[in-house]
């Protein structure tokens, strides 16, 4: 009964769940289904039974509905099949009827289109005739106006027929244009009338245009004439200044060089010739250009009350011409003629403007010319800065500088400020110095290539004087020697000294006419010379030193050459002082950095000597061919080593001309490198066995090295300093030759040890090589008591040495 009671209670609950499932969205059915499982234990089974019953009821309802509508569906399908057959017949009939209609209507359509086309053409012709009758009077009047305008261009200044053209334009605007205002050509004519009025104004300025064209064509000639006159005056002043300087300071201001004196004479002669040529006829701007058209046009516009328009037009046209004049040719930087044409056009332009400024009132004002000049000056500086950067020829840069100076002086004479041009010259001066440095870099390279790197031989007094005239060399000992004799430096030294002076002259040429004080010129010369020494010459020397074909003899000569060039720097400073007349004791005087330049080059050459000397030693050492298993020595030193020692003797004889410390350092470096190479040969890992005979032969070679060191190949060493380079080898060989292991082991680590320089690791390595040899060469030695004892001694020493090596590694 209890179960039946529970079943009755759950049935309404299951019906509620089924209703929720049927009426709820599928996404929300989860909680509803979960409640079935959360209920009583058998609720799931009962719910499924209830669900099956519900499904059967719905299936019955669906079947009942389908049975009800089935007959109507069948009847509809049957009717549709009948209609399809009739529709097919109707489609065929309609298609046939449409085809027959199309065939019958083609001819009608063609005739209809022809009629329509003819009607349209007839209507268009009628419309065109009407419109032409309306437009022809307008076109005729406009054509008449154009003819009148053409006539005005010829007869304007001699007649007043321009009034008829203005009257015609008035009739067009008031009478004819309103009739045809809806047409585009009328709009174009209306828009063109203001231009025609402007044309009338331009016709009145035909003479002005001719004038503007004339001065545009003659700008070159005007500018050339003005610049030539300024150049003549400038050249004459500079020549007189040079003559006064020569008289004041004497000709010795240019030591051993007559170039400036000769150039001044040439300049003076050229100046007088130019004066004689130009005394006959000196052209002015009025001689080259007729300014009367400007005066007439200005008067006409003043009478018409449109003077301001004329002024604006004139200034506008001149500004356009200024922009054209200021626009350079793309290849202007290639030749000096390109720059000259550019400058003459600009000068001609501003000479004309200056003349207009002074002969007219108001047409050109000072404010206008100043504004125009400032605009032009900015453009000129930008153009020159851009184009001069392409110049790689110092001669072209120098000619450009001279042109800029003449250009600036010419315009300055007409009252235009030119300070910015001289500031630009300082920028170009830096570029000029760069081109000079590049040129002289090639000169120095050629000098070094042509040098034979041997002392200069002289056989008589004349040759001696020639060298002395080129290079300031002073050596009383050399003067006392009889001919033939040799200068210590090679041919490159006087050539380099001459070229440095030539560079100073070239740099000085740019500094002339820059309106700078002697102090500033002196500072510029010294700075540019410092750049030549510290950058160009130093770089060439370093490149020369690093070339593979330069040998030890050449390097020694390079060191000697740099020493003499370093000593000559004071003469170069005196040379600059004589040119600028600025004492070296002046507070702000720049010093030449040649001392540091040649010291750096000399240090590089010294380092290269040490490197090449060690390389040469390595080449000889590679020729060594020891028989490391020989039983007895040859009794004489190895051939490769004797050849090496002879080579070193000859090389160190060449080093006698070097400074003492350089020769001593090279000698010590060579001995140390030789000692290290011999030690590495003994300890080479590829060398597995060494016999006592080989050690004795090796000892003979080391003895020869010690004899060479003791012979003092380079003077200046104290005591046995040079022999100490081989002390490591000597103590090691003595230890093995004497077989004094007891002393070595007992005294190891003590400062007074006899074998202080013998490293236990080195001794162990060599002893193991000898131990392996003893084993192989004494197969039957175990039957001899002495050999057995020696073998045991070697093994004992090896153990003790290994313990020393291990102790050293642990201590480290």
Automatic annotation (TrEMBL):
Residues 50-227 form the Exocyst complex component EXOC6/Sec15 N-terminal domain. The keyword Transport applies. Pfam families: EXOC6_Sec15_N (PF20651), Sec15_C (PF04091). GO terms for biological process: exocytosis; Golgi to plasma membrane transport; intracellular protein transport; vesicle tethering involved in exocytosis. Keywords: Exocytosis, Transport. Residues 421-769 form the Exocyst complex subunit EXOC6/Sec15 C-terminal domain. InterPro entries: EXOC6/Sec15 (IPR007225), EXOC6/Sec15_C (IPR046361), EXOC6/Sec15_C_dom1 (IPR042045), EXOC6_Sec15_N (IPR048359), EXOC6PINT-1/Sec15/Tip20_C_dom2 (IPR042044). Gene3D superfamilies: Dsl1p vesicle tethering complex, Tip20p subunit, domain D (1.20.58.670), Exocyst complex subunit Sec15 C-terminal domain, N-terminal subdomain (1.10.357.30). Belongs to the SEC15 family. This is Exocyst complex component. It comes from Equus caballus.
């Amino acid at each position: 009964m209890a179960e039946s009671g529970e079943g009755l209670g759950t049935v309404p609950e299951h019906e509620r769940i089924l209703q929720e499932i049927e009426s709820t969205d599928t996404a929300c059915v989860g909680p509803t289904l979960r409640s079935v499982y959360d209920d009583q234990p058998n609720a799931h089974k009962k719910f499924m039974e209830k669900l099956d019953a519900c499904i059967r009821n719905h299936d019955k309802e669906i079947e009942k509905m389908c049975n009800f509508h089935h007959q109507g569906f069948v009847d509809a399908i049957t009717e549709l099949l009948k209609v399809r057959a009739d529709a097919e017949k109707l489609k065929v009939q309609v298609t046939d009827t449409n085809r027959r209609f199309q065939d019958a209507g083609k001819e009608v359509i063609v005739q209809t289109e022809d009629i329509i086309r003819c009607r349209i053409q007839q209507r268009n012709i009628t419309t065109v005739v009407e419109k032409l009758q309306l437009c022809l009077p307008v076109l005729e009047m406009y054509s008449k106006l154009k003819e009148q305008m053409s006539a005005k261009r010829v007869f304007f200044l001699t007649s007043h027929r321009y009034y008829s053209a203005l009257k015609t334009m008035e009739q067009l605007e008031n009478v004819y244009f309103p009739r045809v205002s809806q047409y585009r050509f009328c709009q174009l004519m209306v828009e063109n009338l203001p231009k025609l009025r402007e044309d009338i104004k331009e016709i009145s300025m035909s003479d002005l245009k001719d004038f503007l064209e004339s001065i545009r064509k003659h700008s070159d000639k005007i500018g050339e004439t003005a610049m030539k006159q300024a150049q003549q005056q400038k050249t004459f002043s500079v020549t007189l200044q040079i003559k006064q300087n020569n008289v004041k300071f004497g000709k010795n201001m240019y030591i051993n060089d007559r170039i400036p004196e000769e150039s001044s004479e040439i300049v003076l002669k050229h100046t007088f010739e130019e004066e004689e040529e130009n005394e006959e006829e000196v052209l002015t701007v009025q001689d080259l250009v007729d300014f009367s058209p400007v005066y007439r046009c200005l008067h006409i516009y003043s009478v018409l009350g449109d003077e301001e328009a004329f002024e604006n037009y004139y200034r506008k046209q001149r500004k356009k011409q200024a922009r054209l004049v200021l626009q350079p040719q793309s290849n202007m930087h290639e030749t000096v003629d390109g720059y000259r044409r550019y400058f003459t056009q600009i000068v001609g332009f501003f000479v004309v403007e200056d003349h207009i400024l002074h002969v007219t009132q108001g047409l050109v004002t000072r404010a206008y010319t100043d504004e125009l000049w400032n605009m032009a000056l900015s453009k000129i500086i930008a153009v020159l800065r851009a184009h001069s950067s392409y110049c790689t020829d110092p001669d072209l840069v120098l000619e450009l500088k001279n042109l800029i100076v003449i250009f600036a002086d010419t315009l300055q004479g007409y009252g235009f400020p030119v300070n910015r041009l001289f500031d630009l010259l300082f920028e170009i001066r830096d570029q000029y110095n760069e081109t000079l440095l590049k040129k002289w870099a090639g000169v120095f390279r050629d000098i070094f290539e042509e040098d034979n790197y041997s002392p200069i031989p002289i056989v008589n007094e004349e040759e001696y004087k020639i060298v002395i005239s080129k290079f300031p060399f002073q050596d009383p000992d050399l003067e006392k020697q009889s001919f033939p004799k040799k200068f210590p430096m090679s041919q490159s030294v006087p050539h380099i000294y001459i070229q440095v002076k030539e560079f100073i002259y070239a740099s000085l040429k740019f500094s002339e006419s820059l309106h700078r004080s002697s102090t500033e010129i002196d500072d510029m010369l010294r700075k540019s010379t410092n750049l030549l020494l510290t950058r160009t010459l130093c770089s060439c020397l370093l490149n020369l030193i690093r070339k593979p074909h330069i040998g030890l003899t050449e390097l020694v000569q390079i060191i000697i050459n740099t020493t003499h060039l370093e000593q000559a720097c004071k003469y170069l400073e005196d040379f600059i002082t004589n040119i600028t007349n600025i004492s070296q004791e002046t507070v702000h005087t720049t010093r030449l950095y040649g001392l540091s330049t040649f010291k750096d080059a000399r240090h590089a050459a010294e380092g290269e000597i040490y490197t090449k000397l060690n390389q040469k030693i390595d080449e000889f050492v590679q020729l060594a061919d020891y028989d490391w298993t020989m039983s007895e020595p040859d009794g004489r030193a190895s051939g490769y080593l004797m050849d090496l020692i002879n080579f070193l003797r000859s090389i160190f004889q060449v080093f006698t001309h070097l400074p003492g410390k350089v020769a001593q350092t090279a000698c010590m470096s060579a001995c140390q490198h030789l000692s290290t190479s011999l030690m590495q040969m003994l300890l080479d890992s590829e060398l597995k066995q060494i016999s006592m005979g080989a050690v004795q032969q090796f000892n003979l070679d080391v003895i020869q090295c010690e004899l060479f060191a003791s012979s003092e190949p380079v003077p200046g060493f104290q005591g046995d300093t040079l022999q100490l380079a081989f002390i490591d080898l000597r103590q090691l060989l003595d230890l093995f030759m004497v077989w004094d292991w007891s002393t070595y082991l007992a005294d190891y680590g003590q400062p007074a040890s006899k074998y202080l320089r013998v490293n236990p690791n080195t001794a162990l390595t060599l002893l193991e090589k000898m131990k392996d040899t003893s084993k192989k060469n004494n197969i039957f030695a175990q039957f001899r008591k002495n050999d057995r004892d020696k073998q045991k001694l070697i093994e004992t020493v090896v153990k003790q040495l290994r313990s020393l090596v291990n102790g050293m590694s642990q201590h480290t």
